[in-house]
Amino acid sequence: MKPILSLKEVNKNIGQDHIVKDLSFDINPGEIFGFLGPNGAGKTTTIRMIVGLTSVTSGSITINGWDISKNYKQAIAQVGAVVETPELYNYLTAEKNLIHFGRMSENVTKEDIKNRLDLVGLRGVRQQKVGKFSLGMKQRLGIAQALLHKPKLLVLDEPTNGLDPAGIREMRDHFRKIAQEEKIAIMISSHLLSEVELMCDRFAILQEGRMVKTEKISEDRDDKIGLYELEVDQINRATEILLKQFPQLSVNVTQEEKIQLRVTKEQLGEINALLVKEQIVLYQTTLVKQSLEERFLKATNQGGYR
């Protein structure tokens, strides 16, 4: 699959400061990609390079096959963006806002405007003035505006800022619909990790200008070591047996009196067989999945993770 957005060894210097360092990642059609990092990590600078607001010092950014440094006009024509709260005309209706912004792009028809209002669920209020809209409705109209020229990449910076839980869920559903129906690659930068976890397919974590982690939101990877919890009837005896037979493993007992250890699936099978052989009743084995927040804190060495 050909990626919509591709960054290859991208660097950005501002004066003597090296803001972004050898950054590489791809985003595929129909994929929602979370772009995360602490304040000052270089996220905003990276987004500014992707949407053409600042130049690349070295490396390449390619959007739907167009290099932004060599073919700026063609590359930027592939991008739509919403940064926090969109700028709209409150005294115009939703439809007239889109008509106005549509004049800035080539070949935007009345049917395109209707389709975009449909896509974000605003066609029924298209004749209402934007000044009467809720923040969530304005966010959705801003997305419709960003999609008018049929971009292949949608970049969203803090798209759920100021929304209540119902508004956040509504936005999440619309992002999913847009990605699936339009096959648009969506890049979301947000501090709301719980929302990124629910919304995105993959995520990347940036720290001090470098990529420190990129992976799928789902942790179901057969080739990786997993964190497992075992619930047994003789926890002290079971712990002693495991420490004796597997001295290389770190075996911990949780406050809920469960055995916790990091092993492969093959090692887990050996452990279960050993416990059965030693006549220890194994009630339950659970794969413990870390939340995105825990993975973020660990990757950035925050929250006590080292």
UniProtKB/TrEMBL annotation:
Belongs to the ABC transporter superfamily. It comes from the Bacteria. This is ABC-2 type transport system ATP-binding protein. Keywords: ATP-binding, Nucleotide-binding, Transport. SMART domains: AAA. Signal peptide: none annotated. Residues 5-233 form the ABC transporter domain. SUPFAM superfamilies: P-loop containing nucleoside triphosphate hydrolases. It comes from Baia soyae. GO terms for molecular function: ATP binding; ATP hydrolysis activity.
